[in-house]
Fold each of these.
Amino acid sequence: MLLSGCTVGRVYVGAEIMENPDTRIVIGSTTKSDILGIYGPPRRVQRQYDGDLFIYSYFRKNSSTLNIEEPVVTDLTIFTYTRVQQKKDSLVILFDKDGVVKNYGFYRETEELTPY
């Protein structure tokens, strides 16, 4: 007699960055208040002499495992397959002393994850 089992796990950390910054942020015009209205509070704020830095990040990890076992006589695991995928989206926004966006960087990787 063989027994098989499958587990699926998902871990999400942070708030998903829903708005594409290329369509929402205008360098030299968008303010801290605008950014907070669009993206909410950042995951991290770094204070600097010439302006603050807002850091937004969203981490996703998907995993799946398949086990085939003989649980009665030998309690032997015959086969195990594990697949783990993890990706991160990040948005970093640099403000000048007046609280206006000086520059930003963005990359999105979580769309590359398969749904299973």
Amino acid sequence: MLIHPMPDPTIIAIGPFAIQWYGLMYLTGFLLFIIFGRIRIRQPHLAAAGWTPKHLEDMLFYGVLGVIIGARLGEVIFYHPAYFLAHPWEIFAIWKGGMSYHGGMLGVVFAAWIYGLRNGRGFLEVVDLVTPLVCFGYIAGRIGNFINAELHGKVASATLPWAMIWPNVDLLPRHPSPLYQAFFDGFVVLVLLWIYARKQRPPGAVAAMYLVLYGVCRIFTEHFRVPDYEISLAFLSVSSGQLLSIPMIMVGATYLVFIYRKTARQGHL
């Protein structure tokens, strides 16, 4: 059985200045966005569309604002509204963790829309380009959650080789759920989506496929995580993460059916 190492959330502190692991993970995600974005725009259909490294750098500026503001507001609104209403100053303490992925995704969507308006690019064109790159930020964020000993998993069998005791919770063996989510919701989705996005797809199809893949994986990994809250839906207990993922799957799947049928009809004309 493993024991969570419980590292100090602060890497280094000099007077009032401190570098936190959580912030470093976000910075890592942004750097990977640029590195793999440069690889992605070399794909023939994206190169033909005129995407350049300068476009990536500009989009990152919008994306950083969108993901930080959206993720924090999502945490406040979706998960702990009563707490933050009583402690409004805590809303700005993002270095302590507490960032909602669903909120961050909405922030990125809004940032992509603003970027497209200001640069003469279609919204679907922008989101199809950046969606696979968003996975890197998700992976980095979940690793940050693990380092901060956040989002602990449900109690697991002591015979599970990677069952882990979280000393800040109790002495029971638990699933290391942030690592599950980094792998399945992040890495597995990234690989599948990257393969899918290598070829030119109908407008919006890459983003829609991400909604489906991420939603399905998130519903699966939520089974191993202690939920922020649960509700009863059709005699089933549904966690907050699953509840927010269901509309993602519905929207993504509906759009994929619509756009491929439309493409097929146009192909017969």
Amino acid sequence: MKTMVVWTAKPGTLREAVSRFLAGQANSPAGVTMLGRWHSVDLSTGFTLYEFSDAARLYELAAPWADILDLRNYFVIEDAEAGPILAKAFPR
């Protein structure tokens, strides 16, 4: 499965978030592959795309950040997967 995690720093925690990130604490645990990570240029939001098969590993990744980041997970699929499903659901 793939999920896009959208994160924002809770008020007053940006410095701590940066510190943890620079210390390498944003690395993925075994079983979770980071496919890409992007940071908004105004430092307000970030986006990380992960692939995993065990949701508990994703939970393991998120738990240490829950005190300073608001995390939202969006399960995603690619166009090649979505197209046939949409064609069936919305026939012409």
Amino acid sequence: MDSIEQAKRNIERATDLTSVLDASYRAFAVMLAVIEQEEERGGPLFPAFVLAGVPANSGRFALSAAPSLPASARTGSPVPIGLPAAPAHQTAADIAKLSQLLATRLDDAALAALLTADRRACIDAARQAWALRARLGKPRLR
């Protein structure tokens, strides 16, 4: 199982605010690592991956301000093992799907968050996940 699929499963399994924040922070780290890998490969989707790096990093940064984010998320290994070796267009589609799931879960978490800082972090991170989805949602090969 590659890191994108594992991140997706972790987000789907998250049941409370703390686990959603943890899984989301780690998912942004996974997406950023995969995006950087794709940037190094080059190819026709290089510009899309370069543009996608900003919201991936910004989403992770937004979540770092959440008081309910477990400290272990910040200190855990940010670069996952099992980066995908799929073609760039498939990787872009996989990241776009993960971003949409992430954005939806963060939007829901924002509604349930009791602390204003957690709510703000979820809203900001969800906005970045939606932006990431928009940048990689329908990649064009030409």
